Amino acid sequence: MKALITGFRGQDGTYLAEELRAHGREVIGFTRSESGNLDAGRIHSVDYRDGRALGDLLDEIRPEEIYHLASPSCIRDTLEYEKEILAICVDTTLIFLRWITDRSPATRFFFAGSAEIYGDPVVSPQNESTPCHPENPYAVAKLTGRELCATFRKTHGVFASSGILFNHESPLRRADFVTRRITQGVAAIVAGESRELVLGNLDALRDWSHAADFARAFRLTLEASHADDFVFASGKNHSVREFCEEAFAAAGLDFRDYVRVDPAFYRPDFAQARLGDSRKALRELAWKPKIGFKELVDEMLRHDLEVVRR
Ligand code: NDP
Question: Are residues 95 and 243 in the same domain?
């Protein structure tokens, strides 16, 4: 079976490719990049805004599964960024759903959404029925992508599912996210390259999982008997402080000796922490995370210690 992954070179794309190959798929990747290891048969450099070229390429590849993961994964405050996020989550999603409807009705589609759609959540924990109050263009784009899946599901019978994704991390997490900043910071201190780690609000709470667990969730979503929306989350909140404590302790250090708080790094935090309720995924997909918080932190730290050692 042929599976197409957009955002193939990102964190989730890398774990998903591994997961799908282990389950017998032939994996094809899309990237915007024109450099690196581009293999004409398996990795394609594409312009996601060019509907005609994308359609021709899809006609050629004829994927039976499409996992649409491509998108900026962090939030920025510029017009260029806002146009990009809407284009990839809305316009490109529409191109895929139209191609499936018109040219390949049996192809199954997965959209990577985000818990950002809840904004400042009105209830806790959040599930598939929780009201959405997007507070930035990223969240608007993710909510619209989810709505497009639901619309094509209802009106055209397309197997289009979306994941409402809470935070998920790994040694492949980009360095501008707090988890990776912490594990890279600890590794730099251990290597003597740095003396302190500057962070924002240590009390900020997050629902963190491991990206490998999410790759399995994406596969199970497209293997299900029917298409739907699913929340994927650990269902547990941990603070940035706890993440620091664990990462420094795993390196034999006390975080209080090294972490300096700078309010300039504070991000707006909501009255109620986002916390995911994945009971529907457990019930219908038999999915729950296998990798716990401590294992996640330890794996990320081990990886970054190995990098500085090398
Ligand atoms: P990454 O940033 O690691 O990977 C995303 C990939 O998308 C990049 O490698 C890039 O690939 C591609 N991309 C980035 N910007 C654009 C753009 N403007 N247009 C088209 N493609 C773009 O993110 P993750 O793998 O962590 O996330 C995967 C998906 O899950 C994303 O849609 C993200 O929004 C969503 N998500 C992730 C969460 C998390 O905690 N990780 C939480 C909630 C949602 P290339 O440059 O090769 O084209």
Answer: no
Give bridge partners of residue 168 from the DSSP assignment. Answer: 209
114 is an active site residue: yes
pLDDT in tens, 48-68: 999 999 999 999 999 999 999
pLDDT tens per residue, range 236-293: 999 999 999 999 999 999 999 999 999 888 876 665 689 999 999 999 999 999 999 9
Residues having CB closer than 6 A to ligand 1 are: 7, 9-13, 31-33, 48, 69-73, 84, 88, 112, 114, 165, 167-168, 174
Quote the pTM value. Answer: 0.97
**What is the domain-level CATH number for residue 247?**
3.90.25.10
Q: Name the token pair of 150.
A: 């639901």
* Number of domains making up the chain: 2
Tell me how many degrees the CA angle 6-7-10 measures, rounded to the nearest 5: 150
Is 286 a member of any domain?
no
Residue 146 φ then ψ, to 5° = -65, -45
The per-residue pLDDT for range 70-127, each reduced to its tens digit, is 998 777 788 999 999 999 999 999 999 999 999 999 999 999 999 999 999 989 999 9
Contacts of the segment 21-24: beta carbons below 8 A, 24+ positions apart: 23/219
Looking at the fold, whether 28 and 137 belong to one and the same domain comes out as: yes
**What range does the domain containing 225 cover?**
2-168+208-232
Nearest-CA residue for ligand 1 atom 40 is 167
